[in-house]
């Protein structure tokens, strides 16, 4: 069946001239639907979105790349189905061949359909809703088929639109493309892929060990893997550079259990706000994970950090309860009331030490220098170093859960710092969750999408996020009548971060 669907794909390619997969490699087993996004510098730079369905990749060429801003409508041109082993292809397609140019594995992960229709029914209707769980893209999207094709019906044109959820932004939705310019499979930039340099891509779709050394066909040099010079294990170099204004943060993948084996450091997962601390000539800036300047919200921390040498530090701002454990609801309340003097900045990584760019160094070396930097600055109750554990991750997670903490973050001890979501950082959460209260629900058109929930903190009902998974049709049928009985015209949420009224949100009385 998949072979018939690939007839157009195969007709367009000469596999004697291109090393693109032909669809015959053994695939790794998966009980989840996979997706990949490939950055493709062909005649025009674009991003290829591929969703696993019915044994092939349904594929769209997104002309400007995906955006996280729901206001942006990205043209997505439907192209021929691709074989699933194409999801591990990274390299160059020879000039003169179909799609000639450089291909990077820009994102990959898993996807799930949304709504009551099957994916096939939704595609046929032209209103295809789905959620991505990738290294870089997350949350709900929709592909909407346009009524009139720009090319007179030769292809099918769609619009790719981000749904409004906790992963959406209100402006600069393209920043996710600008901030992530390396491969999620090999860590290489486009230039290295074009020249066939660097490490091979890590397999995702095919069985481990079946990916070509670089999956690169260099039409000019015919560079073969066995003729390349063996790479030496050189010690990573510290680069001298001016302190940048902002560095996109490294993000965690998610695991049910901590990774096993040696070579991992385990840290407590803090339930707070991720903040990058930038200190230069005694002036401190506190920047969110999206680069927004929140210095004014945390004056006590900014003042405490002003004595530090020029540096960029990665960490998290938390409020602590009476037992010294992070309390996210207390953090929200403190921000809402403007009472942030007691908040604490937990520092866990050092990206720049003066003019030294440390990102290429192993994590262990970066943390050693961070501990020394903070120690030399003297006692500081507002800025604290995050210790780590080198014992088994399972034991650390169990201890964290017994203390009612959120979980742990496991990090490869020898890994460099890389912006974007990487496998070298992985979070494992405790199963027990916070008790939350429903304050609103969201719909897409007439379809239920998610619950908006909060927690009671003193006189405040503090928004903590959305719950959008696990709602089958039978659950929604039982839930909606109860929600309608509680509908109200005013938001129950208070404080900073509370969701704003929009057409897709209905407020309810929290009970």
Counting helices, strands and paired strands, the structural category is alpha+beta
> pLDDT below 50 for ≥5 consecutive residues: which ranges?
210-234
- Overall mean pLDDT: 85
- What is the count of helical runs? 10
Distance between the termini: 51 Å
Largest sheet: 8 strands, antiparallel, barrel
**How many DSSP-defined strands?**
24
* Overall form: globular
How many domain regions?
Answer: 3
Name the strands of the widest sheet in spatial order. 1-2-3-4-9-8-7-6
Q: Can you describe this structure?
A:
The chain is α+β, with helices and mostly antiparallel strands. It folds into 3 domains: 226 residues, no CATH class; 191 residues, DNA ligase/mRNA capping enzyme (D-amino Acid Aminotransferase, Chain A, domain 1, 2-Layer Sandwich); 71 residues, no CATH class. Helices cover 16% and strands 33% of the residues. A hairpin with a 3-residue loop joins strand 7 and strand 8. The longest helix is centred in the last third of the chain and has 14 residues. About 5% of the residues have low confidence.
